[in-house]
Structure formats: structure tokens, C-alpha cells
Specification:
Helix content is 45%, strand content 0%. With 102 residues, it is mostly helical.
């Protein structure tokens, strides 16, 4: 009975709604429209992004902001539009997932 109580207490303590990224999560946030995991399409592959930012301090924060706000110039002249449907938590989850694809 104690393990059940412990798990229940832990579930109540953890924040709800935290995004969990996997190979399918990015498709639900419209990333698939321009990106693929291992090949360039309209935008760079996620593995290319991970390699570019592999040694950058605070890369997860930078990428999360770029996901939400968009940008242009880092990968050429094609702009990445802001992804306003992605929350701050989701953008951080996506950024960390991308960086883990090295």
C-alpha cells in the first residue's frame, strides 16, 4: 500500500501539462512543415541544428526563443516564422529534444 501512496503524492507534486518530446511530438507543433530529423528540407534538419549548437552555452534557451519568435539569417535567407501555438514549456522541451539528436 505504501508504494501507491508514494506514487500518488509524487503525481500531485509534479507539475501537470509538462510536454514530453519524442519523434512524434514535433509533428504536433507544425515543425514537420519545414523540418525533418535527419535531412534538410525547407529548413535545416534537427540533427544539423543540434550539431551547430552542440557546444553553445545556453543553446536550449536560444533555440526555445527562436522557436517561439522565429528568425532569419542563421541558415540562409528563408525566414522561420514565429510558432505562436507553441508554449514556452513546449518550446524548451522541443529545443532540448533537438539538441539531444546529435
Amino acid at each position: 500500500m505504501k508504494p501507491i501512496l508514494l506514487l500518488s503524492a509524487l503525481a500531485m507534486w509534479l507539475p501537470g501539462g509538462t510536454a514530453h518530446a519524442d519523434d512524434e511530438f514535433y509533428k504536433t507543433k507544425n515543425c514537420f512543415a519545414c523540418h525533418r530529423i535527419d535531412r534538410n528540407t525547407l529548413g535545416p534538419s534537427f540533427k544539423s541544428v543540434a550539431a551547430k549548437y552542440a557546444d553553445a552555452q545556453g543553446a536550449d534557451v536560444v533555440l526555445a526563443r527562436k522557436i517561439r519568435e522565429g528568425g532569419v539569417g542563421v541558415w540562409g535567407p528563408v525566414p522561420m516564422p514565429p510558432q505562436t501555438q507553441v508554449s514556452e514549456d513546449e518550446s524548451m522541451t522541443l529545443a532540448r529534444w533537438i539538441l539531444g539528436l546529435k
